[in-house]
Prior knowledge:
Largest interface: B-C, 46 and 49 residues
CATH class of the largest domain in chain B: Alpha Beta
Oligomer: heterotrimer
Number of helices of chain A: 11
Shape of chain A: elongated
Structural class of chain A: alpha/beta
Number of strands of chain A: 14
Number of domains of chain B: 2
CATH architecture of the largest domain in chain A: 3-Layer(aba) Sandwich
Structural class of chain B: alpha/beta
Number of helices of chain B: 10
Largest sheet of chain A: 6 strands, mixed
Number of strands of chain B: 5
Amino acid sequence: MNTDTVLSLKNVSKKIKGRPIINDISFEVKKGQIYGFLGPNGAGKTMTLRMIVGLIRPTSGTVEICGHNTRKDFVRAMSNVGCIIENPELYEYLSGSDNLELLRKMEPDISASRIDEVVELVGLSHRIHDKVGTYSLGMKQRLGIAQALMKKPELLILDEPTNGLDPGGIKEFRSLVKSLSKEQGMTIFVSSHLLSEIQMICDEVAIILHGRIIKTSKVEALSAGQKITWNVTNVAKAIKLLADDFGVEAVKDTEETLSAFTDDFRIMEINSAMMSSDIGIKYVSRQQKSLEDLFMELTGGETIG
Amino acid sequence: MKKWIWYITSIIFILGISLFAYGFSQAIAIGIEVNRAPETAQPAQENSVKPQEVDAALVMGDSLARGTGDETGEGFAGYVIKGLEASRGESLPLYNIAVEGLRTDALLSQVNDPQTREGIRSSSLIMISIGGNDLRAIERLESNQESQYFKESLDSYLVKLDEILRIIRTENEDAPIVFIGLYNLDYSPSNQERSQYLIDWNQSTQRILESFEETLFTPTYDLFKLNLEEYISADGLHPNSKGYAAIGDRILKNLGD
Amino acid sequence: MVKLIENEILKTFYKKRIHVIAGILLVLIALFAYGEHYTLTRTQDRVAEQLGIENAEDWKNIIGQQLQDLERRLDNPYIPDEGKASIQVRAEQLRFYLDNDVSPIGSTAARFMGQFIEQSIFLFLPLLIILLAGDMVSGEVNSGTVKLILTRPVKRWKILMAKLLALSMLEMFVIFMMALFSFAIAMVVFGYSGFNEPVITGFRVFEGQLDTSAVRTIPQWQYLMMTYAIGYFVAFVIGSLSLMVSVLVRSTSASIGIMMSTLIGGSFLSFFISDWKLTRYLFTVNLNLTSYISGSFQIVEGLSMTFSTLVLLGWSFGAIGIAFLVFTQKDILA
């Protein structure tokens, strides 16, 4: 067992009423990483997360956290974990600090002062004694993070954490995550359906679709290759040129445009080649790869959902 | 605040549990008792007080048999016993199973009881006073209903009286049965109708008694007629000591002692 | 574990659940006491009529005469021992009334407390407990807070155990409130505490008939301890059942609704108890345990304090077992 694997899933599957919802998922998260879990809504992200933290039992396969099997050694496994699953629901009739106090009592080794620390960290000190029922969504999110961070966990699991936050909040969140990772060496596991989110925060990512992992890779590798659109005088000729001379598969978008995925440095080559072949170029534009594009690429045209 | 809630709840719980343990075990104990059948369904013949093998007298019936109103508490039965003991020179135990307010139907049930039968069996003298309470409801009636009521009560009473005597004779063939008649509380002419009823009642009773052997009807109607002031006690209902003595006297005379 | 229990109790208090129960108790007890007080004069008149006396205040004479009569009856050797017990016991009661100048009509605090719990034990008390326990688990699943507690490094069974133990403590609190409120209100309304008054108990059923041969008296305070102890037992049983339903059912209103309708519907089935053997194993018909010691029970063959207690225990343990089994395996999907 690799000692710096903080989270590992091996052949995890889940069947509900005979139907497979999650199918044979495996991946590993190493210490210190900020690991993303990407997929469209309904792909199985939340289901997987729930299996990781023990809310749902896998039909087969194992989940290990810091080397402890979550089924056989739940307590030791979960003592390394802080998490927020979907919306951070807390006891509305208790105050923020009462909530944290209640949770603190459930675990050993969290000092009382830690609570104050963590409340300050998330910026809730001024409202911490009010009933959670009076909090805004953003405040509840913050309190959610606070409860996850209370025990200084090895592994922080966040489920769609920026859901419902305003741009300012999202920015704050991003810097918090980065600092937790850099300054405290926390391993962070984030799930999201937004590629841009993952791209901005994570180092590595696992992509899930229809309950299966279709790819795990470093985040940069994903961003490599953007979609380039040419508006030219002869679409068919251009497509042929790209295929024959550059080995790039291009697609006709409209009567006047075609597009292909390719890297920055080749564009200039392609452009001059086209011009040499008497293909007039009106304009060239570049698009960030969208999730749909990514999936198209990875699944070879399979539709989403 | 929070700590208080926890402390108070814990204290109440600890106290409560100890009280609970005590209370519940008690309740179960009673419950188990309740469940166990009584040790014997039969009356414990070995243990109960048995009338002695020697002669004993038995008096049953209503408050008259009990001796209510007698300052000395003897009643006519006590008086009779005293007299008998004096003349025989030996003691005679008296067992009084009379109940105040008893009616004839209740006396019948009582006589039917195995325990009572046992007592009847071992008695050498049986005295009965019953019937007065059967007519109590007459006070509440309209005058035109009285006649009907009286007739019904009398018929019902006679049937039961017959049964009572029959049971007594089944258990005990020899002991003389002394029966006390009813007296009036108002012998005035305005109360004629009721007086007639009573006389009817007494006569019918006497007739039934005659159909059994060794029975003695002891009238009281005439005893009290002219002596209400002297013989009736403060409650205006029962005889006083003198009145009971008069009855007892008559019984003794009838028994020939 | 202690901390977990502490948490659960705090949650219930902050939810104001206890406050609501306290409020209901206060209102109901006050109404009950007022009602008794109100009918007191009417009762007195009725009793006076029955005993044939002018004035209900004349009870002393009547009691005196009754007592004398009973005492003389006891001298009768022909009364079987079985019969003696009920006479003795009645005589004791009458003697008490005379010695302490207490009228047998009307109420005292102790009598009221006993009456109240006897009346509420089979329906009202269970309803209060259902209110208390019905959403112990389903409420948290509904509001999503269950995610919070199940993702702590604590085994699931411990969490449920904490809830169960907290419930036991809270049930004791409710019983305590009931005792306290009925005592306090009764003292205000009736004035006399009457804890030493003898109460008759020990009724038996033999061959289908009420057998009074083993009756004896116990002081009111002892009787009250027994009835309230029984009350706690019933509360515990209903609490366990509610906890189980709360684990099995997602919606809180369904959870409370199921318990309430089972309770009320089940009591209808007690009509069939003599004929349809199966009904006597339902928990609802066995709730009226206090009736066995107060002597006001329906005489049915085979039904007794031990039987009912065992049936209730069976239901209780079964419910707890099922609750634990399901809770530890359950997938929290939402």
